[in-house]
């Protein structure tokens, strides 16, 4: 028997998983141990949170342990100030045979006013591992709702245009 988010073939293998199954949101309070001498988030701390959130999204999607294979160009759009809430969101938008592409966005939130702003964005690729630690196949991405399809298409297009821009700079 199948549900609305997992499709199976005749052998019982998972063929597709809904994008929403991977959605992950983490929150952190920016405290002094994650800041520079200006009272702003260290880039390395933000990258760490992005990696963790992305890995959780990949594991939720694939039902496997996943390891980071790559992180694309990272855009630090706006600083995060001490005392702000850091919100990290991730979801799987594309898969290969053993790899999962994850879009990760970070925003800062003022906990007293609720005001938010986008701070960081990137695309990460993870590889799913089997019980012996070898790469293993992953399901395809399904987008059963219009919202999921929009998120998926937006991520695919943004990654494509970002990759083209990087290629132009270095070629």
TrEMBL record:
One of its GO terms (biological process) is fatty acid catabolic process. InterPro entries: Cytosol_ACT (IPR040170), HOTDOG_ACOT (IPR033120), HotDog_dom_sf (IPR029069), Thioestr_dom (IPR006683). Residues 20-132 form the HotDog ACOT-type domain. One of its GO terms (cellular component) is cytosol. Keywords: Hydrolase. It comes from the Archaea. Residues 149-171 have a biased composition (Basic and acidic residues). This is Acyl-CoA thioester hydrolase. It comes from Candidatus Halobonum tyrrellensis G22.
